[in-house]
Amino acid sequence: MNEREEQILALLKEKASFKAISRLVGMPLDHCKVTCYEIIKKYDLDYNSAEAAKMDRDKLPVGITSDSNLVRHRLADLMYEARERDHALTISMAIGLSSKQQRLASERPYRHNWTLGELERFARYLNVPFADFCRKIFS
Question: Which has the closest alpha carbon to 138: 126, 121, 123?
Answer without folding.
Answer: 123
